[in-house]
Amino acid sequence: MNGLRSELDRRSFMYGLGASLGSVALTGLLGNDVVANGTTVIEDNAKKPHHAAKAKSVIMLFMEGAPSHIETFDPKPKLSELHLKKFVSQNERFSGMTRGNRFYVGSPYQFRKVGKSGIEMCEHFTHMAEADVADELCVYRGCQAESVNHPAALFHMNTGSRFGGDPAIGSWVNYGLGSVNQNLPGYVVMTELAAPQGGSGNWSSGFLPSKYQATRLRSSGSPILDLNPPKWKSRDHQRSNLDLLSELNSESLKSHPQHRELESRMDNYELAFRMQMEVPDLVDLSRESESTLEMYGLNQDSTAEFGRKCLMARRLVEKGVRFVQIFSGGWDSHDFIERAHKKRIQSIDQPIAALIKDLKSRGMLEDTLIVWTGEFGRTPDNTVRGGQTAIGRDHNANAMNMFFAGGGVKKGAVVGATDEIGGEAVDVVHPIRDVHCTMLDLLGLDDNKLTYFHGGRYKQLSQFGGEVIKEIIA
Fold it and tell me: What is the tens place of the pLDDT at every residue in 174-199?
């Protein structure tokens, strides 16, 4: 044995032995993923959850820019009484000092109670106001964020960390549960024309193996670049190339067992090869009936783009994709909120209602968790410039709302509350990490057990632990 080989073997041995129990446990992870209940499974196969799951998959509808809770699902009549009166915060009342030209802003929209459950909803939600949709919703009004900076807040809602670089929740879900369909990625992201602030950091696998990172479907053209091989290259040719590459990489991996990224790269090559067979049919919406396309709003310019993504999300989870995320931009309404939010609400209303109805009719809603959220809420006050029609709202981390549907959550329910002006959550108050813990719990995963050894310690989605919001769960 030459000196180099001896050094590599000794280094590999020391890497596996380490100096702590954690390092010994990590050695086992090098060969297999170990579910917290002790069952060893081969990676990329479906894994056993930690406990009985209510949901099998997630469709996360992310309204980038932060929709106003006061203009969507959390009406504040008191604000209408205070409209354009001088805003004085609690601290200002104590100190006697005011912070400038800020005024209370009442909502320009009317609200009404919808469905048998009587959930309050903005007037511009018309399709979602139908009883067979509204009575499936669980509106949560008690969430609080930790940042009012868009990129940091986006990272926080998507990865559990405000600083970027950590695995996205979809990556954690796929790490914990594995793949159902070996020919498709377990985590898929769709965006509108531009990526959200922070870009791919919102769906990165972070320190998890790169095979858990999301696959992003493009908005125009081929959904995935190079999905179809060149005409001169047959599948047999591709297969032989991959076999040779796999053989060479496997030999390298034996000498460098600590280099997990090589293994992930090999897995990704194989997945890409298999996707060439299944994805083209999956993204071909012409296979859907005209009535389905119309139900999702694909025949209208205002709803076609988001409707196409919602229909694609249904097709993806139907084929076994674990986590689908759709980003809808344009919700950052500092000005002209009446016009801007109306337009955004009308663009998503019919597609989301169609998604809920479609899943329900196929018997899929009960085990598909839908999550609608932004990165934070909006303020009850703002500076007034350009006249009343130009009024908007600033960022607010202390109060926001979101809704859930399907996947084991309560139906036709409102959980939590904000104060009378919508400035702060006051009932069933929980941070974002508890929302993450609740989503994992519905999928049968325990945040405290779903860990990965990195940087000298075991890490988890919630960063340092959280609790399940039991009031949301049916």
Answer: 999 998 888 888 999 999 878 999 99
CA 260-264-268 angle, 5° bins: 170
> How far, rounded to the nearest angstrom, does the alpha carbon of residue 276 sit from its chain's CA centroid?
26
Token couple for 44: 């990329």
Which of 154, 151, 114, 164 is CA-nearest to residue 134?
114
Q: Residue type at 324?
A: V
Q: State pLDDT tens for residues 325-374.
A: 999 999 999 999 999 999 999 999 999 999 999 999 999 999 999 999 99
Identify the H or E element spanning 187: strand 187-190
Between CA 54 and CA 355 the distance in angstroms is 19
Query: CB-side exposure of 33: number of CA atoms within 13 Å?
Result: 25
Q: What is the Cα–Cα distance from 452 to 461, expressed in whole angstroms?
A: 10
Instruction: Give the total residue count for the chain.
Output: 474
Q: Rounded to 5, what percent of the chain is helix, strand, coil? A: 40, 20, 45
Distance between CA atoms of residues 291 and 77, nearest Å:
39
* Residue whose pair of structure tokens reads 């249904």 in the numeric block: 314
Structural Rg of the chain based on CA atoms:
24
C-beta separation of 156 from 162 below 8 A = yes
Residue in the structure block whose two tokens are 């909803």: 121
Pairing, β 323-328 against β 187-190: parallel
- Supply the DSSP string of 225-285, one letter for each residue: TT-SPPTT--HHHHHHHHHHHHHHHHHHHHH-TT-HHHHHHHHHHHHHHHHHHHHHHHT-G
Cα 131 to Cα 134: distance, rounded to the nearest angstrom: 5
Q: What count of other Cβ atoms lies within 10 Å of the Cβ of residue 214? A: 23
Residue of 316, 341, 318, 319 lying closest to 330 (CA atoms): 341
Residues 162 and 388 sit within 8 Å (Cβ to Cβ)? no
